[in-house]
Q: What sequence folds into this?
């Protein structure tokens, strides 16, 4: 600090000196972005599948959409971005693992030929994801790690030419924001939810965020909207007052699909065979297949 | 981040990065005008934050490897991914003078955090090259650690 009466000495700011020599950190970040852009440049459409809350069937929806699209001959990739609760590889019946090549990782192959990357394929089964680092400050650096991990899943995997790349995001509105920071606005975002009162506020937050970030194509997927009696075929709503449509109206989103509850979704998908392949005639499978076609419609 | 020598009003140059193995990092900068050196000392949390960006302060010593952050930063994530050549494909051909890494040695190298792996790989590579060793194995790594005093690497 200068003495009283003296003119404070001038110290140049970062921006005044930033071009004085090469900034290697910036170069590395630029190179990361370049590799990401090149890899995603071979993808026709990127569709993010998110939810404000967990346990709404988001991954099962993702697995079925991927299988439905792949079954029609399209090249489909699926990224399980839920690092802490990965399930997509199992749901897509992945047999085998990832293979490392010189400059990329070959994705695993799941049902109907879907190319899959998931933390499930990197850590031992049932092993929790444990980040190496100082645990007492994990909250500071783990979100950075998670975003970098997603970047690597996108840029370091030899996806090849894809018609559609589906991103199964972990629950939470901020996950959508991080994704947009990383890759820009995807071609479409699906918000999966159950039509409950509790879900309404969460969906509205996500809808607001996506609107603010310039994402135009956002579809609401109301999961487990109704139940069909296997004996008599009677269809009963699981939530009162036509919850799905009310949810769409309140959140300002378009309702792209209503998927009825079907116990076989969980059973078959857990066995690695998505319902759209195992029982395509069932109402839930038909709803998911129709949604898949909507994603690739012109 | 820049370091400015206030007396000279010069941006200091990156000199070297040191990773003592306790999760911290030291980065040395020097003034190109007066030669004064200063060290930036980062605590484990700051060091992890930097490595979490997938960058190396001072520039990369080796090209990035696929999924290097995930595989180095998550416990067990480097155990299930076969390396090139182990799936029946031919391993990469080696350039003249290049040292080959055995599969076991590569596995061990992948367990090293990404932000220090390049330096570790280079040290072992130089050790092998200087002694005319064509392939680095875990045994060679052990020998190098003992001879070079690299315990913990």
A:
């Amino acid at each position: 600090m200068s003495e009283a009466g003296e003119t404070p000495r001038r110290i140049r700011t970062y921006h005044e000196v930033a071009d004085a020599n090469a900034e290697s950190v910036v170069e590395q970040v630029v190179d990361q972005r370049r590799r990401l852009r090149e890899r995603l440049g071979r993808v026709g459409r990127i569709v993010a599948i998110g939810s404000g809350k967990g346990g709404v069937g988001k991954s099962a929806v993702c697995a079925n959409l991927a299988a439905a699209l792949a079954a029609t001959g399209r090249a489909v990739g699926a990224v399980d971005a839920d690092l802490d609760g990965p399930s997509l590889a199992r749901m897509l019946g992945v047999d085998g693992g990832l293979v490392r090549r010189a400059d990329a990782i070959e994705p695993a192959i799941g049902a109907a030929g879907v190319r899959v990357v998931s933390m499930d394929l990197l850590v031992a089964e049932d092993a929790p994801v444990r980040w190496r680092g100082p645990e007492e400050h994990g909250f500071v650096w783990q979100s950075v790690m998670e975003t970098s991990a997603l970047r690597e899943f996108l840029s370091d995997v030899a996806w090849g030419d894809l018609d559609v790349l589906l991103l199964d995001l972990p629950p939470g509105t901020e996950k959508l924001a991080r994704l947009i920071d990383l890759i820009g606005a995807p071609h479409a975002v699906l918000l999966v939810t159950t039509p409950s009162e509790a879900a309404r506020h969460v969906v509205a937050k996500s809808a607001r965020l996506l609107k603010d970030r310039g994402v135009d194509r956002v579809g609401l997927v109301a999961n487990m909207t109704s139940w069909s009696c296997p004996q008599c075929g009677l269809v009963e709503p699981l939530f009162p007052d036509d919850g799905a449509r009310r949810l769409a109206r309140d959140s300002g989103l378009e309702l792209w699909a209503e998927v009825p509850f079907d116990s076989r979704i969980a059973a078959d998908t857990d066995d690695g065979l998505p319902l759209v392949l195992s029982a395509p005639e069932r109402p839930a499978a038909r709803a998911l297949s129709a949604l898949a076609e909507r994603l690739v419609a012109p | 981040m820049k370091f400015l020598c206030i007396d000279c009003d010069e941006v200091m140059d990156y000199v070297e990065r040191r990773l003592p193995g306790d999760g911290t990092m030291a980065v040395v900068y020097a003034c190109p005008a007066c030669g004064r050196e200063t060290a930036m000392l980062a605590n484990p949390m700051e060091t992890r934050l930097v490595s979490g960006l997938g960058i190396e302060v001072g520039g990369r010593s080796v090209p990035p490897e696929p999924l290097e952050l995930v595989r180095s930063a998550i416990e067990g994530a480097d155990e299930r991914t076969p390396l090139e050549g182990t799936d029946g494909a031919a391993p990469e051909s080696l350039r003249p003078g290049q040292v080959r890494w055995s599969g076991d040695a590569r596995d061990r190298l992948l367990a090293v955090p990404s932000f220090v792996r390049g330096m570790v790989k280079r040290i072992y590579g130089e050790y092998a090259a200087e002694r005319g060793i064509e392939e680095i194995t875990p045994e060679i790594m052990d020998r190098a650690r003992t001879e070079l005093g690299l315990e913990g690497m």
Chain B has a mean pLDDT of 76. The radius of gyration of chain B is 18 Å.
